[in-house]
């Protein structure tokens, strides 16, 4: 399937990390979502019922980043991917990228990210 909806750079503040100061002070996390689904009906009907509400996906992602802290962004990405497939039945495959640009590493990096893909 080549139809997809992509949402890039969803920003939310969370308290995820292994280190105590990450879980105490928090930081901004960014998420990208690539959802694969059949958009033929929506492209013909121009009706929201034939697709998924990407505003609702953004709300889900922000809510999850702000909710229960995870030690690993791998866990956060997997949790979001599973919730998207559970709540949006039209989506057949989802890829969730979590960016942690302020990850505490010894060196300058532009970004650190994890990509999790899930299929229905």
Description:
This protein has 120 residues and is α+β, with helices and mostly antiparallel strands. The chain has four helices and four strands; from the N terminus they run βαβαααββ. The chain has helices at residues 20-25, 40-45, 54-66, 73-87; strands spanning 4-14, 27-36, 93-99, 113-119. The protein has a four-stranded antiparallel beta sheet. The longest helix is centred in the middle third of the chain and has 15 residues, at 73-87. It is elongated and about 50 Å long.
State the gist of this model:
With 120 residues, this protein is α+β, with helices and mostly antiparallel strands. Helix content is 33%, strand content 29%. The protein has four helices and four strands.
What Rg do the Cα atoms give?
15 Å
The biggest sheet amounts to: 4 strands, antiparallel
Residues in helix, %: 25-40%
- Amino- and carboxy-terminal Cα gap: 13 Å
What ranges have pLDDT less than 50 throughout 5 or more consecutive residues? none
State the order of secondary-structure elements, H for helix, E for strand.
Answer: EHEHHHEE
Helices, by number, come to 4
Classify the beta-strand content into a percent band: 25-35%
Mean pLDDT: 96
Quickly give the structural class.
alpha+beta
Give me the oligomer status: single chain
Taken from the alpha-carbon principal axes, the silhouette is elongated
Question: Would you report the number of β strands?
Answer: 4
| Strand order of the biggest β-sheet | 1-2-3-4
């Amino acid at each position: 399937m080549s139809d997809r909806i992509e949402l890039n750079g969803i920003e939310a503040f969370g308290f995820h990390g292994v280190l105590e100061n990450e879980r105490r002070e928090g930081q901004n996390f960014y998420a990208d979502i690539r959802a694969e689904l059949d958009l033929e009906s929506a492209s013909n009907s121009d009706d929201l019922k034939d697709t998924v509400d990407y505003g609702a996906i953004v709300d889900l992602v922000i809510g999850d980043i702000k909710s229960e802290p995870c030690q690993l962004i791998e866990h956060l990405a997997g949790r979001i991917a599973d919730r998207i497939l559970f709540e949006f039945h039209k989506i057949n495959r989802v890829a969730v990228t979590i960016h942690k640009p302020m990850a505490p590493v010894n060196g300058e990096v532009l970004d650190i990210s994890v990509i999790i893909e899930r299929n229905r």
